[in-house]
Amino acid sequence: VEASHPEQGTLHAWVEGELDSAEHQRVEAHLAECARCSEAVAEARGLIAGASRIVAALDGAPAGVVPSRMRRPRFVPARWAAAAAVLLFAATSVVVSREFTSRGDELLSAGNQAAAASEQGLSTRPAVAPAVPEESPPTITNAAGPRRSPAPPAREPIPTVAAERTRAREVRDGRAASVDEVRELSGRARAVAVGGGVRTESDLAGRGVVGQAAGQIANAAPGISAPPPSAARPLPPPPSPPPPAIPSAAESRQSLERSQRGAAMRLQEVVVADAGAEPVGSRSDRVVRVVRYEARPGVIVTLTEYEEPPRPDERAIRIRGGQARPQAAAARPEPRELSTFSAEQSYTWHRPERGRFYVLRGPLPPDELESLARRLSELKVVR
Amino acid sequence: LHDVDRLFREYNAPLVRYLTRRLGDRDWADEIAQETFLRALRQEAITNERAWLFAVATNLVRDDARKQSRRRRLLTLLAEEQREAVEEPVDPVERAHEAAIARRALEELGERDRVALLMREEGLNYGEIAEALGLSFGSVGTTLARARRRLVEAYEDMQKRGAAGGSIAS
Known about the structure:
The structure holds two protein chains of two kinds.
Chain A: H1 8-15, H2 21-33, H3 35-57, H4 82-100, H5 104-120, H6 163-172, H7 179-185, H8 191-206, H9 210-220, H10 249-264, E1 268-274, E2 287-296, E3 299-306, H11 314-320, E4 345-351, E5 356-362, H12 366-378
Antiparallel strand pairs in A: 1-2, 2-3, 3-5, 4-5
Chain B: H1 4-23, H2 26-42, H3 49-67, H4 70-82, H5 92-107, H6 111-121, H7 126-133, H8 137-161
């Protein structure tokens, strides 16, 4: 008996009842006497169940999840000045306020915030190392706020897995869609707007004239009735020489490729302000990155990445600027949903493994914002 | 001529699930499945329907993967736009995380092992898998045993290393 231990494959077949009766009985008889093979059967059962569970887990991926191996290298060089990130953020809030509130006092308030930021926020420290790319989707720990209303499943319950993967694979294999293809595939990928937005805002921020920028934006505000995507709005062209923050052609291209992804979720990345640079002063919640998206035509949302928990009241932070003192971390162990601007909602979540905090802000209902945050997470935009 | 309606009713769901797991793309899977049923329509006689369908679908995947046409991307994008978000009962991010690891672990397998395992998960018996993949009956068990072990080990390994947490950045 000992001389004829069944092979692993035979044991699997035996467990699954796939052997003919003669062989089935032979294996059974052997197992009755062979402890070693009985153990192997137990293991086989475990492997069968385990593999089955793993395969079933494949179905759990919402569309858009990219297995990390397929991910392209991080492309945003960490060379933006800290001031750029913060001032861009401030400028963004002005734009958002202008576009989505009709009340002049709020506009004014936003302008003051920006001005405060410019006064207090310009002492940059040396850049730190760029953030390590992150592979996993972040954990949204805050599910507060109304759930999105359940949409009827468009299909039978075979779950979908990443269509994104296909594209990522193409990119990896050098078959990435060209810029033209991206445009063709997504009429909404406004390449010009992407470039223009980056240039204008980074230039303003780079020269440290956020007050001026805010003024320009504020002045321009009354003239715009139907808000176009803010990035497309012409702002005064920068004087010589162009600041280093203008993305290279390669970056624009990559930004477009991300737009291609974004097209699938009706999102466009308008500005990528990567940091890796130490943000401003002694702000307790240091901004690492600010990204703006066009959630749908004319609706801009802003994703901000922090190194520390953002304060519950963003407005207060930006008004106080460098004077803000960090609260004890224990005081805010859990990210929470924020509501800071009258027309703006925010959604906050935390990635413990990175120690990063993310806030998505925009003039959207909380449930929409939440679902957007989830999709951003799933698309690995939030890294 | 076959009763394609019946074939479709009976086999479309498992076939699409199999293909979706294999491809990671539901729309692509739908396309392949439809093409498979179209071919069944033209087929004279099919002895084992399930084995035949899975075998044809598997071959179509192989052929189709070479093309990766522009049309493919366009369709994917279009379909993506129409797809509505479905409410997830449990934490969708966590599920997505698990799924991403599972997918990576699955990618660790050889193609034949992977396909055999996915077929088995759709309920194909050893004979059908052997027929679909051109294996001998006796080697199906070996193939599955190897596939399962590798899958489980790869999965556990990735979880342990927190592979999805960034340690394998390319």
